[in-house]
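Example record

The entry below shows one chain as it appears in the dataset: sequence first, then structure tokens.
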Amino acid sequence: MTQSNIPVDLIMSKLAEAPEKAQVRARKGSEVLLADLDTEIAPTPYEIVYQEDRVKLKYYRPEGKPKYKTPLLVVYALINRETMLDLQPGRSVVQTFLDHGLEVYMIDWGYPTRKDCFLGFDDHINGYMDNVVDFIRQRHNLPKIHLMGICMGGTFSVIYSAQHPEKIKNLVTTVTPTNFDTDKGLLHQWMRHIDPDALVRTHGNLPAHVMNLGFLLLNPARLMLDKYVGFFENMDNKKFVENFIRMEKWIFDSPDLPGAVFKKFIQDCYQQNLLIQSKLKVGGSPVNLTKITVPLLNTSGLYDHLVPPEACERLTGAVGSKDTEDICLRTGHIGIYVSSKTQAEFAPKIAGWLAARDAQRKRSSKQVKKRAPKRTARKTPQPKTATI
């Protein structure tokens, strides 16, 4: 029998502290937990300016007049929520972008229901995403916008930029899997051997709790034991408790994943690695990465256990862009957005990179012809405005 690598003795020794010390911490901890805690997430004000079915578009405006002509659209993954980019004051990618004078739009994919089970890549990329891009272009009277994709949202953004290159000015990808032929990370090894057809037949949409359990099992010692030992050791620290609860709120606020999206993502990407080879088809059309000729900034995390650098770094060599840059930060999949250390490096770098290329490009006199968004879902798109 293989000996476990879980540091059980270390964990138990930490729990077996002197009774008096543990009692003092527990008493102070109970006072902290019973006090008024600030655990709000996504504190930055925004407006809902567009909605189609479950999908909403958030608009964040910087104070005063925006410094740059071209707005940025951020596309998060369908797994978990986009609120990660605005977790709390001082650790908000969104607020950093606003502080640099960028206008920011961000897609909220909402919570899929059973009726969304058959909505696949084409519906989300050439349907919802394309309608959102057209809405922003028309709203600002611009032919092109900046696009930033995160994790699976980055994969979607790469596909979109290859199929609609005329609408994108600059592309930013962060912890974005595009090369799935790697043994780095347990997730990539697992996905090669699962049967997505069986899971979709059983569940329809892939349930959030199934995905969360899978993510926890990728590193059970750290995510199921050590994390809560750490909470016990710091439960008398109000700031620590508030940050811990904010993160837990985000982790377990997980939508289900539409079955058709899950099936194609696993079969065509993880199991056949078609995207990086420019062999993937979406909506019946090929996704040729050489069609991406816009400037590309590709960012990864050195310690990312979900999307290791090896899954990201081949993208810049596969696209047709001459202006490309790879950045690998010494952080993980989530730390790249919420770590106080990377906050001073990650978002300012992106904002500066976009600003430089926005200034370098001559303003196009081409006007965007206004037209109604294409219909790919069951409801007619209905722009809405509401202050949050």
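Notes for this example: DSSP finds 15 helices and 13 strands in the chain. Residues 361-373, 375-388 have pLDDT under 50 and may be disordered.
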